[in-house]
Design goal:
494 residues, mainly alpha, Amino acid/polyamine transporter I, globular, 21 helices
């Protein structure tokens, strides 16, 4: 009976109208929100980690991750246009596959949004610490990184998450306006990087192209391992769908925001990756056994001591510009990253609170969590709780670990959405679809297979953690959500 609790789509839409958020976002704001969520730590920071895993083959990893995301985006666009309410993959799964799987998707999305916000906070901290170090200032070493990365408490990561949380509490439209400015800065920095690095590209820096091979399941190394990690660089496009309930004309604007933001970001990633690899190279650091060291380990940190290699950098793009004698622009790109990365934290916390808001509205989480502030029209209780948790994630854990954990939850959610599109095509073929996934019976299965391929190329530790988190989620569901569900009890809020 657990997976037979399917909430009718018309009921989902009716519930949203009873306790809804203010519609105030247009297509341009949505696209900018998507770009703000996507372009961030993945390209500014994880370029170095991808280089360590795949060498110059990281270019192929960018393409693999982009293709998987594009396939999933087409599925997301169809469901988001049909079900323009908050909740993203959680809501879609509830209306197609049932409450049990919907809960698991919502629980997995904690890994995508909250953990991702922590990862970006750590990435921002790296650029900020780099800027201060180049200025002759800087925090004590113990306050630059968390306890698993050679420090004690990442102070900057902690503080930036709290600042963004406050901004989100005071209002969505205000947040979107700030985000538009930050996205502009970010695009300008990446454009400058492209124009400065591409003329410096040398063919020799691409040889050997795949020094670590293509990878193996559960290995986390090689081109596929890098693709599984660099997938984080594209995480966030689906956050546009979490804003559906606050969007003007969502049937038209949600697909525009999803596809538009992904297309813009993919072009930038390929150009930036080509410039970085070609200008300075990205050969991996090897251990005594001749094999590539795993990023985020004490062995990797020791090998990188005193090294100027790209794969050792905490502020990769600024570091590349310094190495090719553009020190001033390197400083400015670092400054731009420090200014702009908070837009990604903003969108990740935003997405997480909207998913929790919808789960609370369905009775699977306590109803008081979905309380909307009478003045700011935002779910302030959920925003504060999420923001504090994100702050501690960033303060205590390294960026690579957080990014891979994020990817595990995201890939699971993407698979469920792709399956949902096909099931809904069979069960409700007559329902109006403002956006239809082209060649759905080809695109959606390929999306599932692509997500599964990347999931299996995460490290064994990450996959074990994902299933451990799933077990905890099931326990929470049976202890609370299964009994309190409004759908099961007929207690939809009025």
């Amino acid at each position: 009976m657990l997976f037979k609790r399917v909430k009718p789509l018309d009921q989902i839409l009716a519930t949203a109208e009873k306790k809804s958020l203010k519609r105030q976002l247009g297509p341009i704001q949505l696209t900018l929100l998507g770009v703000g969520a996507i372009i961030g730590t993945g390209i500014f920071v994880l370029t170095a980690e991808a280089g360590q895993k795949a060498g110059p083959g990281m270019m192929v990893a960018f393409v693999i991750a982009a293709v998987v995301c594009a396939l999933a985006a087409l599925a997301y666009a169809e469901l988001a246009s049909m079900i323009p309410v908050a909740g993203s993959a959680y809501t879609y799964t509830y209306g197609v596959l049932g409450e049990g799987l919907a809960w698991m998707v919502g629980w997995a999305l904690v890994l995508e949004y909250a953990i991702a916000a922590g990862a970006v906070s750590v990435g921002w901290s790296g650029y900020m610490n780099g800027l201060l170090a180049r200025s002759g200032l800087g925090l004590p070493t113990l306050l630059r990184t968390g306890p698993f990365d050679g420090g004690t408490f990442n102070l900057f990561a902690f503080l930036i998450a709290l600042v963004i949380t406050f901004l989100l509490v005071i209002g969505t439209s205000k947040s979107a306006k700030v985000n538009a400015l930050l996205v502009t800065i970010k695009i300008a920095a990446l454009t400058a990087f492209i124009f400065l690095t591409i003329p410096a590209v040398k063919d020799a820096n691409f040889t050997p192209f795949v020094p670590n091979g293509w990878g193996s399941p559960l290995g986390g190394i090689g081109v596929l391992g890098a693709a599984a990690s660099i997938f984080f660089a594209y995480v966030g496009f689906d956050a546009v769908s979490t804003a559906a309930e606050e969007t003007k004309n969502p049937n038209r604007n949600i697909p525009i925001g999803l596809i538009g933001s992904l297309a813009v970001c993919t072009i930038f990633y390929l150009l930036v990756g080509y410039g970085a690899v070609g200008a300075v190279g990205s050969q991996p650091m090897l251990g005594a056994d001749g094999l590539a060291l795993r990023p985020g380990t004490p062995e990797m940190a020791a090998a990188c001591t005193g090294s100027q290699a790209l794969v050792c950098s905490k502020d990769a793009l600024a570091h590349v510009l310094v190495l090719i004698n553009h020190s001033t622009m390197g400083y400015l790109v670092g400054l731009a990253a420090a200014l702009a990365l908070p837009s990604v934290i903003l969108m990740m916390i935003y997405g997480q609170t909207r998913i929790f808001f919808t789960m609370s509205r369905d009775g699977l989480l306590p109803n008081r969590l979905s309380k909307v502030h009478p003045r700011f029209h935002t779910p302030h209780v959920l925003t504060l709780i999420t923001g504090v948790c994100v702050s501690f994630f960033g303060a205590l854990f390294p960026v690579g670990v957080l990014a891979d954990i994020t990817n595990s939850g995201t890939l699971f959610a993407f698979m469920m959405v792709s399956v949902g599109v096909l099931i809904l095509r069979v069960k409700q073929p007559e329902r109006h679809r403002p956006f239809r996934t082209p060649m759905a019976w080809l695109v959606c299965p390929l999306a599932v297979l692509g997500c599964l391929l990347l999931f299996l190329n995460l490290s064994l530790y990450t996959i074990e953690l994902f299933f451990g988190w799933a077990v905890v989620g099931l326990a929470v569901y049976f202890l609370y959500g299964y009994r309190k569900s409004h759908l099961a009890n007929g207690t939809e809020p009025s």
